[in-house]
Prior knowledge:
- By secondary structure, this protein is mainly α.
- The protein has one domain.
- Helices cover 78% and strands 0% of the residues.
- The chain has helices at residues 22-51, 54-65, 69-88, 93-122, 126-149, 157-177, 182-206, 213-237.
- The N and C termini lie far apart (49 Å).
- Residues 1-13 have low confidence and may be disordered.
Amino acid sequence: MSYAPDHEMYQDRDVFAIDAVASERAAFIRRTYAHLFAAVASFACLAGFFLNTPAIADPMIALLQAGQWIWILGAFLVVSWIASWMASSGASQGVQYAGLILYTVAEAVIFVPLLAFAQFQAGNASIILQAGALTLLIFGGLTAVVMFSGADFSFLRTGLWVLGLAAFGLIVVASFAGFSLGLWFTVGMIVLMAGYILYDTSNVLHHYRTDQHVAAALALFASLATLFWYVLRLFMSRD
């Protein structure tokens, strides 16, 4: 259910996008996706730079080859939690933007080993471009479903949280036990991230305030980046 009260009600406070007048809601959605686009573009540039900078790429690849991936993942989770808190807190816009920037940089860093192995396996960057294109296609389709239907997928929250926690537990166990989770785990994670994209996109419409475009963009970017991670792993498993 949507509401369209007088604009004067919002002059001194921000409201949820679903309750805002149509023009404010549309402006919020445009800001959110403009920031998402900026984060994706920055990620692509930074990942390319890091991948071609031996001082950054070589230590990351060495840690992965030494079986220390779990520590990289742990550090990333800590940084991502801090960045998410910064972006979603009631702090100044400068702090919120710093959180989005921090998260984007962290994503670019953690992707370096995977991109390096994908590029080495294919002999060029084609597999990365193909995975990126499919990721954007999936993301675009899921976004269209939510935007055109207006559906609220917040009911997925508990299920996504439980499945995400279970997946993380499997990753930790596999890292210490030294076994591969295999193709079906990768497919399952793609499905899980599709669920997160539905959930995050519906939150943009229903559960973010009109001043929370930075936090909304970060949530979408996090799900999109993780989807890309597993789509790329799926492409790599074909060879």
